[in-house]
Design a protein that fits this description.
The protein is built from 4 helices and 5 strands. By secondary structure, it is of the alpha/beta class. The protein folds into 3 domains: 36 residues, no CATH class; 57 residues, no CATH class; 50 residues, no CATH class. Strands 4-3-5 form a 3-stranded mixed beta sheet, with no helix packed on it. The termini are far apart. The relative contact order is 0.08. One of its GO terms (biological process) is DNA integration.
């Protein structure tokens, strides 16, 4: 993962000099966008909205490590599996051969989401792959009264 060397931010009052000092101590410079120019940072604003709507609004984040794993997983999905209108509904980066092979050989991918099991069937192998960032949730057995 590349380390950021520059943070471009708007002029909102929530960004104080203490905010800039934290980044300066880490060796990251900060640049303020021009006043009254919201379109200058449009790509970053759209990226934040996309991540929130497609990923973070649907996920319960437990801690910083979990957030980093979820964002890394989403970033891989965003660049290798999600179609983009700007490139004729293609993916920006081709999926690695190993990932494609794993998908073709896995018979069932099980993920726990909202307490329900979702299954995706493909290939013929009997391997099970679980997402490491999601806790395994099982439904409680029905109680007969």
């Amino acid at each position: 993962m590349e380390i950021a060397v520059l943070l471009i931010r708007d002029r909102d009052a929530q960004f104080t000099s203490a905010f800039d000092a934290v980044f300066a101590a880490a060796g990251v410079g900060t640049v303020k966008i021009p006043p009254r120019a919201p379109k200058v940072n449009a790509y970053a604003e759209r990226w934040v909205r996309t991540v929130r709507v497609e990923c973070l609004d649907w996920t319960l984040i437990w801690n910083r490590q979990h957030l980093q794993r979820v964002l890394a997983s989403y970033l891989e999905h965003y660049n290798t599996a999600r179609p983009h209108r700007g490139v004729d509904l293609e993916v920006p980066v081709s999926a690695p051969v190993a990932a494609v092979t794993m998908l073709l050989t896995a018979r069932r991918v099980e993920r726990a989401m909202s307490g329900e099991w979702h299954r995706v069937h493909s290939g013929t192998a009997d391997a099970r792959v679980r997402s490491p960032e999601l806790p395994v949730l099982r439904r409680a057995p029905d109680v007969v009264r």
